């Protein structure tokens, strides 16, 4: 089948990621981007879980009732593809697949994949940054050449990444960063401080997940600025889905996964008036 639009959702076998895929299919028909059939890649690192999630979607009551999927006469198809954003080889393998299957380019990538580990020490920080920061940004750079000229990247971050937890010096470094390398240097300093047992003295919180998401927000902003300076029309934004009831929040929260999916979906397929490099929450701009 030929598709007019193609999108990717990472970490999509459960929780917010799976809800994002569902909401994309539900909302696409009324999107300003709708110009024909949409293919959504549901990606996950575990094949069994990814394929099980796909089967659940194909039987999903919301999708059936709305006739959203092509099997029911709708506009959207969903396919599973393996992707582990903590593995460079996996990222590049998937990018090659996209190039081969969609020579005209794809329309959007929603980088939802991430981890939140228990405890706090240097190993937890290394593992968390490897996925949430370095892995996500490598995915951004690898998928950028595969995007259409007016494509979109949405990085799912978190309000825990806001800058009210840092010393004035660290906050100033974040806000004054002009390049992705500037943000990476802050992440490296955070890890060094944790290894020395002095992260609080250095102006950081003792929080691996929150700091990784602060880095992601800053690096997203820097990447968007760099692309805009090249004359690119790709929109690159970060967002918080809110406090969503998922495994990651251990069942706590005040939003359902479908409610949490609204902002990422907005940034992927709705009219956001060429806004780029912005942090969003509750479907609106949020101060970092």
From TrEMBL:
The keyword Oxidoreductase applies. Keywords: NADP, Oxidoreductase. One of its GO terms (molecular function) is oxidoreductase activity. Belongs to the short-chain dehydrogenases/reductases (SDR) family. This is Carbonyl reductase.
């Amino acid at each position: 089948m030929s598709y007019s639009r193609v999108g990717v959702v990472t970490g999509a076998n459960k929780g917010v990621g799976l809800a994002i895929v569902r909401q994309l299919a539900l909302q696409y028909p009324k999107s300003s981007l709708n110009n024909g059939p949409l293919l959504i890649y549901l990606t996950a690192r575990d094949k069994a879980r990814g394929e099980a999630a796909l089967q659940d979607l194909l039987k999903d009551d919301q999708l059936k009732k709305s006739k959203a999927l092509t099997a029911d006469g709708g506009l959207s198809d969903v396919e599973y593809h393996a992707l582990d954003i903590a593995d460079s080889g996996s990222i590049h393998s998937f990018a090659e697949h996209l190039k081969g299957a969609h020579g005209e380019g794809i329309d959007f990538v929603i980088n939802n994949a991430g981890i939140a580990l228990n405890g706090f020490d240097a190993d937890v920080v290394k593992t968390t940054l490897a996925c949430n920061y370095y892995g996500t940004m490598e995915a951004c750079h690898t998928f950028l050449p595969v995007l259409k000229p007016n494509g979109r990247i949405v990085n799912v971050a978190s309000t825990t990444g806001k800058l009210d937890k840092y010393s004035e010096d660290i906050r100033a470094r974040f806000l004054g960063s002009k390049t992705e390398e500037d943000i990476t240097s802050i992440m490296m300093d955070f890890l060094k401080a944790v290894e020395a047992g002095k992260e609080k003295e250095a102006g950081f919180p003792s929080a691996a997940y929150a700091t990784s998401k602060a880095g992601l927000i800053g690096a997203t902003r820097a990447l968007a600025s760099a692309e805009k300076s090249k004359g690119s029309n790709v929109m690159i934004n970060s967002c918080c889905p809110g406090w969503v009831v998922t495994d990651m929040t251990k069942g706590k929260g005040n939003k359902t996964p479908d409610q949490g999916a609204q902002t990422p979906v907005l940034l992927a397929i709705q009219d956001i008036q060429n806004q780029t490099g912005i942090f969003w929450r509750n479907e609106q701009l949020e101060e970092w």
